[in-house]
Amino acid sequence: MSSLDGDVSQNGSLKRVDALRALAEIEEFDFSRSLDKPPRTLNMERQRSCDERSMNELFGVPSPSPRPSSRAENNFRLSDHLDGLHSPGRRSGFNTPRSQYGFETHPSVAEAWDALRRSLVFFRGQPVGTIAALDNNTDEQLNYDQVFVRDFVPSALAFLMNGEPEIVKNFILKTLRLQSWEKKIDRFHLGEGVMPASFKVLHDPIRNSETLMADFGESAIGRVAPVDSGFWWIFLLRAYTKSTGDASLAEMPECQKGMRLILSLCLSEGFDTFPTLLCADGCCMIDRRMGVYGYPIEIQALFFMALRCALLLLKQDDEGKEFVERITKRLHALSFHMRSYYWIDLKQLNDIYRYKTEEYSHTAVNKFNVIPDSLPEWIFDFMPVHGGYFIGNVSPAKMDFRWFCLGNCIAILSSLATPEQSTAIMDLIESRWEELVGEMPLKVIYPAIESHEWRIVTGCDPKNTRWSYHNGGSWPVLLWLLTAACIKTGRPQIARRAIELAETRLVKDNWPEYYDGKLGRFIGKQARKFQTWSVAGYLVAKMLLEDPSHLDGNLIFSGDRAKSSLLTHSSTSHFDHVFCLYICAIPECLFSILL
Description:
Elements: H1 3-15, H2 17-34, H3 55-58, E1 68-69, E2 85-86, H4 107-118, E3 120-123, E4 126-130, E5 147-148, H5 149-161, H6 165-179, E6 184-185, E7 188-189, E8 198-204, E9 209-215, H7 227-244, H8 253-267, H9 297-313, H10 318-342, E10 343-345, H11 346-353, H12 378-382, E11 388-395, E12 398-404, H13 405-413, H14 419-431, H15 433-436, E13 445-446, H16 451-458, H17 479-488, H18 492-503, E14 515-516, E15 522-523, H19 532-546, H20 549-555, H21 560-567, H22 574-584, H23 591-594
Antiparallel strand pairs: 1-2, 3-4, 5-8, 6-7, 8-9, 10-11, 11-12, 12-13, 14-15
Helix pairs in contact: 2-10, 2-22, 4-19, 5-6, 5-7, 5-19, 6-7, 7-9, 8-9, 8-10, 9-10, 9-13, 13-17, 17-18, 17-19, 18-19, 21-22
């Protein structure tokens, strides 16, 4: 072990005591809200999936890099580099006919790994990401030949779970380098902390050199900067650190500065009266005009997750401590706001239905002056007796009641959703399986907008027609988020059912980007084939289902599942709750110091 690693193991843990105490204080605040009414007791069968796993598993270090293999050439001259790639390692067991637990793996797994390998993009001999799509049957590339930050997330997780962290490390460093570039659209300079939406490797055969070209929104449809890229970058840095046990990357001055620049954009003071982030349409996965401007759930959930990750990654120097204080205050405010005003279930729907309007005082119930007549007809039949979800958007006199899959799954994974709310979201998915899953998981939005509303909201967008693309299309990439949420809530059977459904079509259909139709029956009319995040999303879902300890090792915060289980027992005293919440937030390496 290097001296740097030694410093990290001995001193890095101590540096984070203050940050972990801040996390505990946040959890204490969150629990105090749950005292208002006793939470509904969860089915303990749902909580069994991983709660018994030891702390050692939660902080396990992956195996050394496995054997190399070679693949065919693609547009990025992969044949020059693929001889040095790794085949799937022992953690996944996907390089053999059987998994490490003895049961047969699905034939789609080998196909998926092959497709993921072929999508790798190299820069000066090193893999730095995966191409968005490798569809050789179309001459219209658009920007599908680039490495997208959000698209690479499931690929990164697949490689981390498979014991191949170097690819992820290269990606983190290359995108960090791009962040420092001058970002200008026309005559306007973007904020210093903005991360690119995507980048491309340009090869000059004459000079035999390679350069990177980044897109910060100046080439995107609508010219919108990607708000989500910075949040996904912080998440990947946390996932890399947690998966490898190597904190040296996150503690590099460059990475610390990169995080602070991202956070400065989000935590800056302005005219906002809400702790949520104000965003333009098209600033996230839904990158076209779809009526998500304002305070979309996807951005707010990612924001919350990134803040929690940053709280654990920032060093406790003078600059870091200032940000920790700002993050802690924002997390308190954001969690309260989201859980109070974005959450809807049958009771809350009935309350909104009976709202009075034009209330003026601090005691107003209808704080955003939402007009009850604006409630859409479909929601009265859609809302089950048991179940609920975070709605799409809340702002003055406006509530977007559409279901957004990504935002709700991230809310579960980041613990923005309380244990009771997480269970209700799972109940909703089970109750409305035909609407949200149908014949191909999963609906990115439900329901689709159509007719006059479609013309007004999308501007007659020919790609976002009803039940297509972002307007109610079915996206296989969302499988990994659903699976992670299912495992965290102790409902793996939901994920297994969705994965089995996807396996009947994905390989046969050549891994489409999305499916169209109310049930997701048809390959999307403009969907690319061999869409990388469809491939990677499936692989991550399979690996999580095979070995749920990956969830603790890569995706969620230590002790979150234990805290979720703890909070369902209303008989425990408030002091016991707070004490256990704090202990759950402490890594195993600190127990020998603190006890």
